[in-house]
Amino acid sequence: MPQHSVKDLARPSSTVLPTVQQSDRLLAVLLEEFRPIFYPKSIAVVDASANERKAGSKWVRGLVAAGFEGRVYPVSSGRGTVSGLEIFPNLRAVHGEVDYVIASVPKQSVLALLDDCVVKKVKAIQFFTAGFSEIGTTDGREMEAQMVEKARQSGMRIIGPNCIGVYCPENRIPLGPSPLGKLGTSGSVGFISQSGGIAAKLAEIGIARHINFSKIVSFGNGIDLDASDFLQYLAADTKTSVIGAYLEGTRNGRRLFQTIKEVAKAKPVVVWKGGRTEVGAQAATSHTGSLASSAAVWVAMLKQAGATEVHGLEELSDALLIFQDLGRWKGHNVAIVGGLADGGGGISVSASDSCTETGLDLPPLSQRTREALTRLLGEVGSILRNPVDVSQAPNRDPMALSQAIELVIEDPVIEAMIVQEDLDTFLSYSSSAELERINDFFVRLGGAHSKPLIIVLPPGSAEAERLSLEQRLLKASIPTFPTMERAARAIAAISKYNSHR
Amino acid sequence: MPQHSVKDLARPSSTVLPTVQQSDRLLAVLLEEFRPIFYPKSIAVVDASANERKAGSKWVRGLVAAGFEGRVYPVSSGRGTVSGLEIFPNLRAVHGEVDYVIASVPKQSVLALLDDCVVKKVKAIQFFTAGFSEIGTTDGREMEAQMVEKARQSGMRIIGPNCIGVYCPENRIPLGPSPLGKLGTSGSVGFISQSGGIAAKLAEIGIARHINFSKIVSFGNGIDLDASDFLQYLAADTKTSVIGAYLEGTRNGRRLFQTIKEVAKAKPVVVWKGGRTEVGAQAATSHTGSLASSAAVWVAMLKQAGATEVHGLEELSDALLIFQDLGRWKGHNVAIVGGLADGGGGISVSASDSCTETGLDLPPLSQRTREALTRLLGEVGSILRNPVDVSQAPNRDPMALSQAIELVIEDPVIEAMIVQEDLDTFLSYSSSAELERINDFFVRLGGAHSKPLIIVLPPGSAEAERLSLEQRLLKASIPTFPTMERAARAIAAISKYNSHR
Predict the structure, then answer these.
(1) Minimal Cα–Cα distance from A352 to chain B, Å?
(2) Residue A3 pLDDT > 70, yes or no?
(3) Which of A248, A307, B435, B438 is packed most tightly, with the most Cβ within 10 A?
(4) Do the Cβ atoms of B395 and A198 come within 8 Å?
(5) Distance between CA B150 and CA A14 in Å, rounded?
(6) Nearest Cα to Cα of residue B227 among B10, B79, B422, B61
(7) Is the pLDDT of residue B134 over 50?
(8) Regarding predicted confidence, which is higher, A276 or A302?
(9) Chain A contact set for B197 (CB, 8 A)
C-alpha cells in the first residue's frame, strides 16, 4: 500500500491542513494511484471466452472496436480467440504485466480471482459480478469484507462489485460490456455513478448533446473505492473541469460531505441523489446495498457543501452541459428574445415565468438600447421590454432581426441572452434558407461575443431539422435546450454556483 | 341577437338550475351560435391582396392548400387573384353569403370593416389586427368598446383582436396565416389560448405526438367571446372529450371560475396559467391586455374548480395526450418495468422517486406473480419487487422477457404499467431485430389489454430510431413520454381527475 492513501485526504476540515508541499505530494500520490484505473497499459478481461454472448467477450470486443492502444488479454477456461486475441486459461498464464482487470466471473470465483490478481501484481480490478450486499444476505456482506481484505494486503484497488466500471474516451476505453465499443469525444466533464445503467445512459446523452467526458466511473456497491475517492481524483485530474454524480447512498456520510465541500471549492459538483423517496430508497438498497438517508438530510448536506442538486437525468445533463460550455460565467441579468417566427407574446409571458421562478432577473433594457430598437423596429410598445418580441420587425426583415438581437446582447445591463427558436412555426412562415441565415448569424454571434448566447429549440413537427440544428449549435458550444424551463434552470444553476464562490 | 345567449350559461351556481329541457335548448343555441365559427360555409379574408407577403394572402393560400371545402373570398383594394381566387374590392362586393371573416387590416380600418360585416350579415369575425388594449392606451381600450358595441347590434361575434383565430382539422381550417395550410388529424382534444404563438406551437406538437385536435381557438384580447364562452362551447361539442387552455388573465374571474367548475364536471379541463410571476404578469398585460391576478389566487381557483393545473407546454401536451389516450381510466397502482437493456437498477430507483413523488403507488406484486416470475427468471431478490428489473432474465431471452412483462400487467394489484426503453443502450447490447420484436409485443399488449401500457423512451444517441418508434407507439394509442418524470406526472394527473369525480 502506498505511504499516503487517498483516504488521507478525507480529513475533517478541523484538523491541521497540510502545507502546500504536502498537498502537492498528496495530489501526486492520488493521481498515481488512479492512473492504472483510467490509463492502464494492459487490461485482462475474465471471463472472456469465445462465446459471443458472454459479457466478458463483449467487453474484449468493445475494447478492440474502440481502438484501445494497450494490451488486452482475454482470460477463460475455454480455448480459442476473441476479436483475434488468444484466450489465456487463467490470469497467471498471461505473459505480460496486467495493470487492470475487468471481472465478469461467477460469485464463487471472485476470491480465487483476487488471489491470482495479487500474484500478478494487478493494480486495480473492477467487478461486473453482482449478488453481494445488494441482495441483503449475510453471505453477500461477508464476501465483500473478504474481497476488501485481500485487496488491501497487496495495495490493489477494487471498483464495484455490481458495476460496469470505467469510461475514458481519451484512453479509448468504452463503457460497459457492449461489443460496439462506442466512444464520445474526450472532454472536460467527469461523472461518477452508483448505477451502471445511468452511467451508460448519460454517456449516450453525452454523445447526442456534445457533453464531452473526461472520465465516467460506475462503481456499484463501492466496497473499496467509493464516491469520495473518485470525487477526490476528479478534483485533482487536470482534464476534468466539472463533476457530476449519481449517488444512492454512502457508508461514510461525514467523509462524503467533507469531500464534496472541498471539491466544490475547486470545481462545480452536480449531484443527483437517487432514492429520495421511501420506495426509491428501498429500491436503492436492493440495487447497490446502499442505506439511503432521508431526502431532507441529503438536501441540506448538498446545499451546505456547495453542490448543485439536480433531480433526474435531464436536469443532470443540462447542468453538466452548461458548466462545460459556460465555465466560470457569472451573472443573473438575462435577456429573452422570442418571436423569430410569428407571435412571440405567449413565449414572452411563459419565458418570464420560467426565468424569474428560477431566480434569474429580466431587467429592462437600457434607455439607449430601447431608443435604438425603436429606430430599427418602429414605435412598438412591447419591443421596449424584456422579453423582446422581435416578431414586430417590419416584414420580419432578416437584417433588422439580427441587428435587433445584437443591440440586445450588447446592452450593458444584459449578462446573457436566451433566444427561443420554434423551427416548425418558423418554417410555416419563412423559408429554410432564412432559417439557415439566422442560425449562421447565431453561430457567429455565439463565437464572437463574450456574453453567453443560449438557444431554446422546442420539439414539434420538424424534428429532423431540429436535431440537425441542435447538433450544429451544440458543436459551436452554444448551450441548447428543448424548453425555456430547462434553459432557465441550467443558467440559474451556473449563476448561483459561480456567484456564490 | 338570439333569445338565449351563451352568456346565460354563466349563472352563478346558486341560481335556480334550468330544467333538462331548458338545458337542452340552451345547448342547441350554443352549438348553433358557434357553428359559423368552426364550421363556416364561406370565409372572407380581408386584407388579402396579390402581394404574397401580406398575412391575409397567406391565410387564403393556407385555406386553399388545406382543402377547405367552403367558399373563400379574398378581399382587398388591389386587383388580381390569390391562389386562383378573384379578389373582391370590398366585403360588400362579395356575391355570396359570408359566414365568417378573417380580418388582417390596419387598426384604423377596423370599424369600417365591422360596418360592412353588419351589412353582409356576417356571423363572426376574427381579428389578427393588434394594437388595442394590450398597448395600454386609452385609445386602444375605447376602440375595443366600439367594436363590441357594433357587433352586439347585429348579433355578430368577435374573436380577438390580436389573435390567429380558429383551427378545425375536421372542417379543413388550418391555424394562422401560414401558406402551407398544415392540418393534423381530427380528434377529440379541444384547446383555447390567449396566445396565438402557443396555440400554433401546440398544433405542431399535436402533429408530432398524435395529440389530435377537434378545435383550437386563439382568442387574444377576447373582447367579445372570451375563455368562458369557448369553454362552454367545447363542453357542449360532442367531438371534444378533453379541453386544454392557455390563459393569461380574464376580465370576469367569477364567470371563468363558475364555467371551469361546471365544464370540469363533464370533461377534463387542463389549464396552463401564463403570467404567474410578476415579470410574467407584466408581459401578459402588454401581450393580451390581461390583468393577471396573483398566482396563488389562480392555483386555489383552479384546484377548487376541479381543473388540472399544468406549468408549461410540455406538461400541457403530456396531460392532453394522456387524457386523449386513456380517457376515463381510474387507478393509482402502477408497475414499472426497466432493464430491457442492461442495468435497470438505477432506473428502478429513480422511477420509484418520480412516481411516488407525484402520488402514484408502486405496490408490491402479489405472491402469485412473484412465484411465477421466480420460476421464469430464477431466484433473484430484486425481481420480486416493483419496479421490476427484467435485465435479470437469463441472457435476456426475449420470450422470457415478454412473459415476465405479461405476468406483471396481469397482476390483479396492478392498474397500469410503465415500461422504460432506452433505445441507445438497448442497441448497444442487442440487435435492431430484437428491438423490433419487443416493440411488436408492446403494440400487441397495448391493444389487447384493458390496463394501460405507458412507454418511456428517453432521448439519447439513437434519435432517428427513437422518433420512429415513438411515432409507432403513439399511433397505436400507447402514451409515450421521453422521461419517467413526465410519464408519472401525466398519469398522476389523470388518476387524480378521474378518481376524484
Answers:
(1) 5
(2) no
(3) A248
(4) no
(5) 80
(6) B10
(7) yes
(8) A302
(9) 338-339, 341-347, 422, 425
Are residues A71 and A102 located together in one domain of the fold? yes
Q: How far is A120 from chain B (nearest CA, A)?
A: 30
Test A276 with B353 for CB contact under 8 angstroms: yes
Question: What distance lies between CA B73 and its chain's CA centroid?
Answer: 30
CA A283 – CA B347 distance, rounded (Å):
10
- How many structural domains does chain B have? 3
CATH number for the domain that contains residue A264: 3.40.50.261
Digit-coded pLDDT (tens) for B222-243: 999 999 999 999 999 999 999 9
Q: Is 90 exceeded by the pLDDT of residue A288?
A: no
pLDDT of residue B306: 96
- In B, minimum Cα distance to A196 occurs at B343
Query: A318 and A351: one domain?
Result: no
Q: Has residue A61 been placed in a domain?
A: yes
Please, what is the average pLDDT of chain B?
A: 90
Distance CA A127, CA A164 (A): 7
By Cβ distance, the residue of B196, B278, B283 closest to A343 is B196
Alpha-carbon distances of A393 from A366, A400, B274, rounded to whole Å: 19, 7, 24
Q: Nearest C-alpha of chain A: how many angstroms from B9?
A: 29
Q: For residue A147, give its domain range.
A: 39-157
Would A367 be classed as within a structural domain?
Answer: yes
How far is Cα of residue B239 from the mean position of the Cα atoms in its chain?
13
The residue out of A326, A349, A382 marking a domain boundary is A326
Q: Suggest the residue from B61, B353, B356, B489 to mutate for an interface test with chain A (most A CBs closer than 10 A).
A: B353
DSSP classification of residue A86: E
What pLDDT, in 10s, does the model give residues B431-460?
A: 899 999 999 999 999 888 789 999 999 999
What is the Cα–Cα distance from B367 to B372, expressed in whole angstroms?
9
Inter-chain CB pairs, A–B, below 8 Å: 263
Q: Are B223 and B144 in contact (CB under 8 A)?
A: yes
Residues B359 and B310 in one domain: no
Distance from the A346 Cα atom to the nearest Cα atom in chain B, whole angstroms: 5
Residues whose CB falls within 8 Å of the CB of residue B165, separated by 6 or more in sequence, listed in order: B102, B126, B128, B159, B175, B176, B217, B218, B219
Of B490 and A349, the structure prediction assigns the larger pLDDT to: B490
Cell numbers 456574453: residue: A451
Asked if A205 and B461 touch (Cβ cutoff 8 Å), the reply is yes
Pair A319, A356 in one domain:
no
Say yes or no to pLDDT of A15 above 50.
no
Same domain, yes or no, for A199 and A136?
Answer: no
pLDDT band at B2 (very low <50, low <70, confident <90, very high): very low
Tell me the nearest-neighbour CA distance from A501 into chain B, angstroms.
Answer: 28
Q: Taking CB atoms and an 8 Å cutoff, what residues of chain B touch A460?
A: 201, 204-205, 207-208
What is the reported pLDDT for B293?
A: 64
Q: Which residues in chain A are contacts of B135 at CB distance < 8 A? A: 381-382
* A179 inside domain: no
Residues A321, A408, single domain; the answer is no
- Whether residue A23 lies inside any domain: the answer is no
| B105 and B191 both lie in a single domain | no
Mark yes or no for CB contact A343/B195 under 8 Å: yes
CB pair distance less than 8 Å for A346 and B195: yes
Tens digits of residue pLDDT in B319-348: 999 999 999 999 999 999 988 876 678 888
Is it the case that residue A416 has pLDDT exceeding 50? yes
Kindly state whether residues B393 and B287 are assigned to the same domain. Answer: no
Give pTM, 2 decimals.
0.92
Band (pLDDT 50/70/90 cuts) for residue A347 is confident
